[in-house]
Protein 1
Amino acid sequence: MSLLTEANFGASLPIDGYGPGFFRVAGEVTRGSIWVSGEEMGSWGGLDDRAPLLALAGKLDVLFIGTGEEIAHLPKDLVSELEAEGLMCEGMATPSAARTYNVLLSEGRRVGCALIAMPEKPDASETPE
């Protein structure tokens, strides 16, 4: 008897994993930084690449922004620009942003995330399959 109920993401795109320079989203490996929202995803150029984030306004209640290995303050003008469009954002380290996105997505919430990829290390032994 299992005590845990497996999360049901429906047609939404969960983040299955990540590693140096890549993310695994709904079973597919993508290299580089990404944004994910419900059934959509795309590449993301980082904190200065605002167009894909602004395009999510009206579709989400909250956007989690993963700042890489460690938490970093989001640029105030980015936060102001997103909030002016009605999009609440929360900055956190990329691993935390991915986990938080998955939890709220499994609850059926209108969430998205923009994730800066973890740095690639020359001796990284983990590679995506």
Protein 2
Amino acid sequence: MSAQKEKAPSKLSQNFLRQFRDKKTRKFKEISAANFMDVWNHYDTDGNGYIEGSELDQFLYELVTSVNTQDVGPEVVSQAALKEAKASILSAFDENKDGKIDIAELAQLLPMEENFLLLFRREHPLESSVEFMKTWRKYDEDHSGYIEADELKHFLKDLLKSFEKIVTEEQLITYADTMLQLFDRNKDGKLQLSEMAKLLPVKENFLLRPIFKMLFGDTKWNLGPNETYIIRKHIKGDKLARGAKQLTPDDISRVFNLYDRDGNKSIEDEELHGFLKDLMELVQEDYDADDIEEFKDILLRECDLNHDGRIDKDELSMVLISFAKASQGPGDEPDVPEDASEGQGTSAASKE
């Protein structure tokens, strides 16, 4: 694969992007939603949701050479020129710096129909996954755990209305159908949580901050059915304990305040689901509402010490510290910040 990334296309082939350039000016014409889907499907040959590796080389080669009126051989564009173009384009459009182009990044790169481009919300991301979960609950009108075609159409209509854009019913149907085909990775005709998260970005996954990555690591597990025991093992594992040992009271407060959006001193409802969504994204690329609920059950079973269905700061700090303590041998107590366990004496005593 690495060898493929350095190779320009080796044979003469019809340039797919040339059809979208004006024959006289050679500039790109406005690309419709349907045409965008055709472009995406043409270059994402393995259907994994990214244009990368040899796919990216082919796309960039055709992007550069599509200005020519006729197909040309690979000798026309030097390796050095192609490499420079690749670096320039990735620098400008690869927002998450992963070395590949996703659907929303491609939409920024090409001259899209304005209303369709607005649907990607790149200029107006949600503040956090807490807001994402509120939006999810609003548009999952039948509480099925999925955003189905009519619900997606309702969401897109409200989104365009927020930008003061009014579209016809026919346009809405086209947009909804295109978005489904672009983001419905498992092709079940509806959007699960992880698919909707690609369509509706948030400003920041809080758990990508260094303190959280120290706790949860970078590994994608890609769990199969009935494999949530792996999550339980990870929550109770030595890596989490070692990270908890390094947590300060400020770290714990920072974690807590990021998700306690209403300031009521507890993480609950959409706040808790937002936390779980961020955590799930660290360990698994594809997940749905059932995965979040199962994860919630595990977390509350291990962390909700007073069984009120929510997490307060004392529970969060006590659980992290207790994991650190549990991983130590006799006489090897972890360094626990004094402030972190304030107000926890009664509960701690009852556990011993």
Protein 3
Amino acid sequence: MKTLREEAIWAVEAARHEGWIGEGDTAVLFHSWAQQKRYLDHLTAAFSHPRVLHAVAIKTQPHVEILRRVVGWGYGLEAASMEEVHLARKAGCPPERIVFDSPVKTRREIEQCQEDLHGIRFNVNTLEELNRLPSKPHFPVGIRINPMVETGAPSVYHVSHDESKFGVPIAQKSAILEAILAFPVTQLHVHSGSSMARTESAVTAIRSVLDLAEEANGLLANAGLERRIDTLDIGGGLMPEILTDSPSAMMAYAQALRRTCPELWSYQLITEFGQWSYFYTGYAYSDVEYAVQRGATRVAYVHVGADFLLRDAYVKPRGMEFIPLGDAADRPIVRTDIAGPLCFAGDYLQKALLLPQLEEGDGLLMLNTGSNAYALWSRHCSRTIPAVLGVDSEALEIRRLSPRTNPFV
């Protein structure tokens, strides 16, 4: 299998040769089917669970053609809004393989689930939301639990502190247990944060929710009820990683769960890995429109910036790799800033890079743009969304998943 770098260099040249990159395409987005399958296969192997639904987070990469391929491979989808539920259905995902996690589900949306989405995995965000449910829901009901742990995630992605808007704090255990007895709850959901630096905290959080499920099942049995908590949704949150022959962080995480939470393999399991599944599956190409010297720094102006890589510009660079193409690769190495196209002073993809000296008209390849990039496209300056190409590097095939489009003008 080609590395992402090898595939990307081949794909840009092949796309030009085959006419997928035309005169008006100042930037193009690519998605690697081989890398996508590799990551999802690795996820399945890491958990090796007999009753698992790996529901990949739609918000990380909502392109319907990519979702359709993921569903075709047998994976589920996690939806954070009713609109994402509709995307999942459009991609061919059956309701019972959709996890619906919106924190603001309306009464009408709940009615839609009851009428048209039988079997959808429905996680409430608050105990108050349970009061809106039908007495006999046509879908399994879960409660999202805030485990109140510190995971080392950046504050903007940390969702398990005591002021989080997500989930019922586990400190309210008595109220949670009362709700499980009173309402038709059969699953518990926990998600400690995104880009977690300390997965041991996530393992501890899952252990606490597993203990809660065990206690709830004891109470249900004592009350003479047949219903049980039979499903645990452990969310996602792992940092992206490059898969090599060495043991992966995902494998280590699953092994830690086996050691600490062996009972988890007796429940039905749901995961929601988005960023980990997608980060190293995408890359982008842009023309270098201008290249100017500012003191000791070369500034290269490209056609994707904070509109496409919003988190990289507004929070911090997430690990992109920049590859000058063609003759540019052989030029002297200079200090370089990569400036995006927006009328916004913070629109830099990265500063102080050491790259071959870029010139007007060069091509620049950007690796590792698969997650939370196309998904977060910003309307700021109302720029056109580039075409998206799907790449099968093993079959040496490229096809257009969507043309360049501008829904804003």
